[in-house]
Amino acid sequence: MIYLIIGNKGSGKTKRLIDLVNGAVEKSNGNVVCIEKERLLTYNVNYRARLVETDHYKISGYDAFYGFLSGIIAGDHDITDVLVDATLKIGGKDYEALACFLEKVAELSKIADQDFTFTISCDESDLPERIFTFCEKI
Q1: 126 pLDDT more than 90
Q2: Distance from the CA of 99 to the CA of which of 5, 79, 105, 137 falls in 20 to 30 A?
Q3: How far apart are CA 44 and CA 19, in angstroms?
Q4: Contact 70, 79 (CB under 8 A)
Q5: Torsion-angle region of residue 100: left (phi > 0), alpha (psi -120 to 50) or beta?
Q6: pLDDT digits (tens, 9 = 90+) for 64-118
């Protein structure tokens, strides 16, 4: 399943994501992965979570981002949670491209039996309605 934390800048999305990561670490019998654009969450996220920054790997755009997520999932079958901060900063502000990306990630989620959580910095009304057919807002 794909979960979205949606809100404008300053609405507490990242704080909520940090709480979810730290909670997942406490419950998980496997590995928790937190993906961010640049190194900002180092001191907020439990050290047992794998913190990955996409800038380090030169990831930009939704195609590269999807490949990156697929590689992470393929490389570690013990991952229980994948949580992503600053989705639009990594992939871009093209909401239709975001919808296509999330649709592909939803398929990956089914194949890998893996849940994904993304923060999205915008008004919910800006997003294409079809996103909510395969994503759940939390």
Answers
A1: yes
A2: 79
A3: 9
A4: no
A5: alpha
A6: 999 999 999 999 989 999 999 999 999 999 999 999 999 999 999 999 988 999 9
